Amino acid sequence: xxxxxxxxxxxxxxxxxxxxxxxxxxxxxxxxxxxxxxxxxxxxxxxxxxxxxxxxxxxxxxxxxxxxxxxxxxxxxxxxxxxxxxxxxxxxxxxxxxxxxxxxxxxxxxxxxxxxxxxxxxxxxxxxxxx
Length: 131
Fold this sequence. Notes:
Blueprint: E1 4-10, H1 16-24, E2 29-31, H2 37-47, H3 60-74, E3 83-87, H4 95-101, E4 107-110, H5 114-127
Parallel strand pairs: 1-3, 1-4, 2-3
Helix pairs in contact: 2-3
């Protein structure tokens, strides 16, 4: 990871896709829809846990390197000096790990009125009743 890394998270239908599109208008910024980095991060955490077969061979420092490796590999082509925003709803659940790994990173959490969100989802379901 050559540039800065920040995170976008939030509720469904709260504007994270719109925010990503707005950020992408700046050529120094990279932001997309939900990336696979979140699930890869979770899988790495799960597979390196102490209760796994090989967990006893992986200490905290090694686990941190492996987790950094997920980001480094996925964003290896990021321009030096660029700002990357990784979008995934699960980042708010991993705040303590992100704060330890990337202390200078920020998390933008998109929210909206819960009733409006439920109404929007219900409208989508009604419009696509056959799907």
